[in-house]
Each structure stands twice: as C-alpha cells, then as structure tokens.
Specification:
6-stranded antiparallel sheet, 8 strands, elongated
Length: 137
C-alpha cells in the first residue's frame, strides 16, 4: 500500500505550522550566537600577515522540517536544533545565512503497517564577519 507513494514523499524546511519556507530567505532558520568566554583564546594570521586574536563561539541553528506528498502536509513539523563551534576575529560582528539546503529520506522501514522514515538534512551555512575600520585618505 505504501510503496507507490513513497517515491513522492519530499521533505521541506517549514515554520512551526508546516508552511513551506524558502531556505535561502532571511529567518528561514534561527541562528543564536553564544560567546564562549571560558574558551581558550586563539590567534591566527590574516591574509595580509597580521596576527589577530580569535574568539570562540557556539552557534545554535533551529528550525522545522515537514514531510509532504504532492504539496500536502503528511507530518507534524519536526523541530531540529544543531550546535556548531567556530571562531571569529576578536571585535568583529557576525551574520549567518544558508547557502546550501538539501533534505531527503535516507531509510524507510515498513513494519506492522507503520512507516518509519529517517530524514537527513544538510544546512550549509556561511559565517560572514565584518569589522568597522577607519580609512585615512
């Protein structure tokens, strides 16, 4: 019974109500940046050769994924939360955005007339840091 419709199942990034979102638009997912003040400070060399201090931080990425068949919602929106640690040059501001989004069904298991689906999502995120600088002309 399930097998003819399984190939038509697709997963999408949605809001908490199951409305499909464009993953490349701002606020499709939520980003929270948490400084890790207790972390060991690092230094790195910039492209120009200057030694800069780096600050570690934690990024929490949150959103919802739902399953659809022919644009009809067939699952409750499932929340996801991803934690990533990164570094940025000290004193810079960050902005984050998705540059690549893929969502697919990895494993489908039918047992006792119940459908189990393993959903895998890729959220490629760009971290952009910028700082205010004074230019002398």
């Amino acid at each position: 019974m399930f097998s003819t419709k399984l190939t038509r199942i697709k997963c999408c990034l949605t809001d908490k109500n199951g409305n499909i979102l464009d993953p490349y638009k701002p606020n499709a997912v939520s980003y929270t940046i948490i400084p890790l003040n207790h972390a060991v400070q690092k230094q790195f060399r910039s492209i120009s050769g200057k030694i800069l201090d780096a600050e570690k931080f934690l990024v929490v990425i949150k959103g919802y994924i739902s399953l659809f068949i022919e644009n009809k919602l067939i699952s409750e929106p499932k929340p996801f939360k991803v934690y990533k640690i990164s570094c940025k040059p000290k004193g810079t501001d960050l902005s984050l955005r998705i540059y690549d989004f893929k969502c697919g069904l990895n494993t489908i298991c039918i047992r006792n007339n119940l459908l189990n689906i393993n959903v895998k999502a890729l959220l490629g995120t760009i971290l952009h840091s910028e700082a205010q600088v004074d230019l002398v002309i």
